[in-house]
Every structure is written in structure tokens, then in C-alpha cells.
Amino acid sequence: MKYIKDHENLNEKIILLRLDLNVPLRNGIITDQTRIVKILPIINFLIEKKSKILIISHVGRPKGKVNKELSLKPICESLEKKITQKVRLIQENIFNLKKEELFKDTTDRVVILENIRFYDEEEKNDTNFSKHLAKLADIFVNDAFSCSHRAHASVSEITKFLPSYAGIQLETEINALKKVTSEIKKPITCIIGGSKISTKIGIIKNLIPKFNNIIIVGGMANNILNYMGSPIGKSIKENNCESIIAEIFRIIKTHSCSIIYPVDVVVGKSTSDKPQIKELNEITNDDLILDIGPKTIDKIKKIIENSATILWNGPAGYFENPEFAYGSFEIAKKIVKMNKAKLIYSIAGGGDTIAVLNQIKAVDSFNFVSTAGGAFLEYLEGKELPGIKALN
Q: Please, are residues 3 and 171 in contact by the beta-carbon 8 Å criterion?
């Protein structure tokens, strides 16, 4: 893979830069700026190199149709403030654009094309669409790791028609994930949450031979507790996953990896109820398990203390209600403490995990925080990502 930072001459070159600016929008207001902050290094690098930057990105799933609510206009305005220079949004039909007209105004250095998913050719990985995009630039740079599990025109097919490079964020992301998949410093622990165990089975199976501890929390843990014969009341639970859990325990037996799940919990009668700590055998039929209990928190903290590397994906409870976010916050604080003492290498990934870290301002206290959801998980599962394959 070639990296753009190693390119010798980018002066006046038009760089077609694929970014992930798929930020959450509410009434045209960006509610989380994390993804915009993450792309500033590549923008500043290319500005410093005197390149002309043509940005491609998407917001939401407009399914090939123009949707004004999913315009990149708010992102354009936010980026303009962050880099303190003009950022022009081109809303004209991409098929009418010509390379020589894009930067006619010499004051233009950063231009953004309107939501690439307004064109159904993007998700179809259409060759002619990719060819047309390629005609608009001199060099292609993929700095959207979080989109790289998609075989889309502006992610993978485009590389056939332009000299193609990996961006700064993409390189950082891959290097961080390599540290928990191939360049492992042991003991290594994975804390994994979420509601569905079926969506994480591939990751768990791939990590068991490499990891020392896999800690299962969140809704996923309810399935394990239920499988082990503990009552879970009316808690969230995935149906028909007994064979999946049996397979996890079967694989665990053949490797030196421990599986850890809650030994006590915090419940409520609803998600807006007051928390109540319970032993597993005390859970009643009208209880909702909404967080891990103090004994479980202590157990997880001890495991973190004895780890050299931590991978965290998925909160420990219903963090949307602060009453049930204590377990997630305590895990985060313990990792941060170990990280500050340089006793651990820590990676966190997934939107909900980032939301937890943002609440206690801990994002910058991890070695790496990935904004990539699907790509992050598929990489951990050992799958080949189309966007990465295209750059190799």
C-alpha cells in the first residue's frame, strides 16, 4: 500500500479525497463533530503541500436520490470554521463537472462535492461513474477507513483509474488495529458489548485464539446468562442463539482464553427507573437488566490491571440513562488511568462506545478511538475490506 504522506510532489495536484463525513444531523445541526475532527490532519497536510483538495463523502442513506436534509452543507460550514479558510460546496450534477473548471477561482483550495450517495451509481460500484470521478483529479486518496468495507465506486472501483494512496487517518487506523490482531502485546483483553451476539460471533471466534480474555457485557451478556440458567426477567435477549453460545464455549476450551460475563447486575422495571443492584438469582420476571453490578465492575477492573492491551467495543449497559451508565464509565476510567501510567495500549471503537467516552471527555485518553463501525468490526473478524484491498 502506498501512503500519501510519502508522495514527493503534491504541489498544485488535484487530490480526490474520499472521507467519511457521515456525521449525525438533527435539523441541519451536527450533534457529534468527532468524524470532522478526525479528518483535519489530512486536510491540513494537503493544504501545506499546496494541493487542490476535492472532497467526496456521504451522509445517511438517500438511496440514489437527492435529499436536501442529507446535504453536506452543514459539514462544509463546520469544516470551513475549523480550517479557517473557504470551503466551497458543489451542488451541480457530477456528470456535468469538468476538471479544468473546478478550481478556476484561484482562491479555491478546498472543494466538496455534494453527497455522493445522491447517485445510485455510487453504491452500485459503477465503473463509468468511477471513470468520470477519476477524470476530475490527478490522485486518489482514501482516508475513509470506516467506509472501506463497502465496495462502492468512490471507495474501491475508483482506484483502477487514478494513482491511489492511503490517507493519514486510514494508515493510523490500520496500524492501531494491527496491534490487536497481529502485533499483539499480551496479556490482551477484549471487552465486547452490544445487543446481538449473532452480529459479533465472527469477531469472538476470530479473537479467541489470539486473546487472553473476552469480557461480554451489555445485552449480549443476557444471552449468556440465560444460556447458563440464570433468570433475566424481561431483559433484551436475542432469540435462537443457543447454538452460537455453545460454539463460543466449545472454542474457548481449545484455547488459553477466558470468557467473562456478569456475576451481578443493575436492574430497573423500565429504562427510566431507578437502579437496583441484584445478584443473578434475585432477578424477577419484571426486571430489566440495564447495567453490570459492582462485583462485575471490580472483576473487570482487575482484568484490565493485568492486561497490556485492551480492545473495547460496546458499552456495558443502557448508558443513554446516566443511572445505568456507571459500569461503562468505570471501565473507561480504569482504562484511562492505566493508559496515563503508560501500562496499557488501548483501542475503543463503535458509535456507542465513543458516545460513552465523549460523556466523560475520555476520547483523547485512549491510544486510539475508531469512528469506524462496520469496517472496524469486519477487520477484527478477519474479513478482507474492499477499500483496503483496492489500495494494496
A: yes
